[in-house]
Amino acid sequence: MDETTTIPPAPMTAEKPAPTIAMRAAGLDVFYGDKQALFSVSVDIPERQITALIGPSGCGKSTFLRCLNRMNDTIAGCRVTGIVEVGGEDIYAREIDVVELRRRIGMVFQKPNPFPKSIYDNVAYGPRIHGLAANKGELDEIVYSCLEKTGLLDEVRDRLDEPGTSLSGGQQQRLCIARAIAVNPEIILMDEPCSALDPIATARVEELMEELRALYTIVIVTHNMQQAARVSQNTAFFHLGKLVEWGATENIFTSPQDERTQGYITGRFG
Amino acid sequence: MTSEHIVKSFDEELNHLNETLLQMGGLAEANLSAAIEAVASRNPELATRTMNEDARIDALEFQVDQMAVRLLALRQPMAKDLRNVIAGLKISAALERIGDYAANVAKRSIALTESRAVRPAGNIPRMGRLVQRMIKDVLDAYTQADAEKAKEVWLRDQEVDDVYNSLFRELLTYMMEDPRNITPCTHLLFIAKNIERIGDHCTNIAEIIYFMVIGKPLTDQRPKGDDAAFTVIQPENDDK
After folding, report:
1. Binned average pLDDT, 10 residues per bin, chain B of 240 residues
2. Sign of the alpha-carbon torsion through B94, B96, B99, B100
């Protein structure tokens, strides 16, 4: 890797005007075998904003998140009915290419899970398999740009060929985010991305989310209500598989309309 | 939602905040009552004692501020709890101000005892009772988290304004009749104004309580009755 390479401008910002609703679910039911996990969930996810999904354990928020890029397809016995649209397109339609769908809708998990590869290859992997770079120069551009966006570049510039797993937990999580954005997604799903991180690393990821919001729509599942309040513009509260209430984060945390939301966010049940 | 928090010490801290606020309100109400008694009975000792009592209200306000800041920092209250803490901060400021007005009434009552008695002074206790009841009821509305009761107090300020307006006119008339009345009447005018302002603070507290309970501001139009600011009374023997 040539260390004098200058950081290229972000190559992946699609400048087309898009609908203000990035993603929409309507009447979404999910069953695991006989057990119904989600009951007729309908919600709009606004574009280039952060939407937080909150609720007690087992409320269906992670199930809902996994429906958004068809991660539930891999779970045996899982059945999804209803509509999930991205940019007006039904992602459960027969002709949808799931691999391409997951490029458009990236995911970051609870525990950082870098590939057992070098830092560089972790980020370069997606663009390579999706054929997003025509040559080494273009691939370098993508890798550098993504590491830059996630604030990692200055921290790892000298050791791009070291394994991704050699980084600290917080750095690994940011590497996973860099990997997610390397394939130029529209939406990033995050399933409790900070629950395995210390407060400083958490703050870094939150700051990163705020920056990424200019480019991507983000949906985050979090157990930490203060985190939802800090980072998101919209909050959806799930309880017993139902979407109880959703709206502007400010309203949810100051004047929720539903007693159950009130009880949960004020620490009275959950 | 009346149920308790999972973390019980959170409830204890919120209760402590509420109780301190009620204690403040009780003192403010008692001080106003004593100040008005000092006016009516021309009792400078009572007035001096009442003025000194105000320091206790100030000390409690400081306590409420500290508790609220602590709750915000350490408990990160949400929704209704958040509105409760913010309301506590604002109500304590209003009660502190009410205490100041009551102390000022007491202070002026001393000057009144040193000048001739004038008849309009008799209307002060009536106005005082109206406002005392507003303080009491608005604090009840706070304790019971009763938005309707708060609104009822809010509407009642009209009555105080009406008494104030008639007192204002009466005092002007007395001053025009005899210049020796000017000193006591001016003090009475300020006393009346102080009491009228206490009524206004009660309506503010009522609005804060309404928001605390409902989560939306009280947006109805309140009848505004204080038109003393526009009042002109011409002496009858005016030449021109």
Report:
1. 77 94 96 96 96 97 95 90 95 97 97 88 90 96 96 95 94 93 95 97 97 90 75 65
2. negative
Yes or no, beta carbons of B1 and A267 under 8 Å apart: no
- Residue numbers in A near B1 (CB within 8 A): 259, 262-263, 266, 268
- Residues in chain B with CB shorter than 8 Å from the CB of A267 are 5-7, 10, 78
Spatial separation of the C-alpha atoms in residues A153 and A178, rounded to whole Å = 10
pTM of the model: 0.79
Rg (CA), chain B: 20
Which residues in chain B are closer than 8 Å to A56, comparing Cβ atoms? Answer: none
Q: Which of B55, B43, B60, B59 is nearest to B109 (CA)?
A: B43
Backbone φ and ψ of B41, nearest 5° = -100, 5
In angstroms, the first-to-last Cα distance of chain B is 67
How many CA atoms lie less than 13 Å away from A260 in the CB half-sphere?
Answer: 15
Distance, CA of A103 to CA of A90 (rounded, Å): 16
What is the interface size between A and B, counted as CB pairs within 8 Å? 45
